[in-house]
Design a protein that fits this description.
The structure is a single chain. The chain folds into two domains: about 35-95, Orthogonal Bundle (Helix Hairpins), CATH 1.10.287.990; about 100-225, Iron/manganese superoxide dismutase, C-terminal domain (minor pseudopilin epsh fold, 3-Layer(bab) Sandwich), CATH 3.55.40.20. Helices cover about 50% and strands about 10% of the residues. It has helices spanning about 35-65, 70-95, 105, 110, 115-125, 125-140, 185-190, 195-200, 205-215, 215-220, 220-225, and strands at about 145-150, 160-165, 170-180. It has a three-stranded antiparallel sheet.
């Protein structure tokens, strides 16, 4: 029996993609002293890996529920898919957003991100004005979540937004995202969120940010697609 409009019928086998942990684009200690090697190791190898492992298990269960026509189970699995899928997406975007402080990628925003810095200057006065506004938003996040600089689809208009827990950006291009979960900073900064934010400013990868600003949402999410292992 054929499916209708791409919707599998009960009993039909469903192919399940699996995701793998992407390697960091730099050594674990490359962001020191701003983010310690200990945090990077735990954050990448343990936290990000856990999101991927849980996502893969949920996708397998979801495909089984689809194949067997168990709609209630499909609905029950969706919050987990959103959380762990979002966790994978957000972290896959996060790692390339950072660069060693001594690199040109981090030190020279005007050279490495000319179009983005021009847009930031137009909206926030200058790059430092943007970071002041962004920092205020990051520090205002209650509980766990992410702060984002996004580009609205079909324009060069920028917005600072937040997402709760591991919700990903779904309606814009994620230009820059900062993880404000405690696991991203607590081992090093304890409850000093301000110090964490101040130090992250020193390790922004402006080359990555420029590529996302000048590209599409699909371009930005290529970092997720390349982690497909099956």
């Amino acid at each position: 029996m054929a499916d209708i409009a791409g919707i599998p019928v009960p009993g039909q086998a469903v192919f399940v993609h699996a995701y793998a942990l992407p390697p960091l684009p730099y050594p674990y200690d490359a962001l020191e002293p701003h983010i310690s090697a200990e945090i990077m190791t735990l954050h990448h190898d343990k936290h990000h890996q856990a999101y991927i492992s849980n996502l893969n298990a949920l996708l397998t269960n979801y495909s089984s529920a689809v194949a067997q026509g168990r709609v209630a189970d499909q609905i029950a699995l969706q919050p987990g898919l959103r959380f762990h899928g979002g966790g994978h997406i957000n972290h896959a975007l996060f790692w390339p957003s950072l660069a060693p402080a001594s690199s040109d990628d981090a030190k020279k925003p005007k050279k490495k991100a000319p179009q983005l810095t021009k847009a930031l200057t137009a909206q926030y006065g200058d790059v430092e004005g943007f970071w002041a506004a962004f920092s205020k938003t990051l520090l205002g996040i209650q509980g766990s979540g992410w702060g984002w600089l996004v580009k609205l689809d079909g324009s060069d208009s920028l917005r600072i937004v937040t997402t709760k827990d591991q919700d990903p950006v779904v309606d814009a291009v994620p230009v820059l995202g900062i993880d404000m979960w405690e696991h991203a900073y607590y081992l090093q900064y304890r409850n000093g969120k301000q110090s964490y934010v101040d130090n992250v400013w020193q390790i922004i990868n402006w080359t990555t940010a420029e590529a996302r600003f000048t590209g599409t949402r699909d371009d930005a999410l290529d970092v997720v697609q390349v982690t497909l292992s099956v």
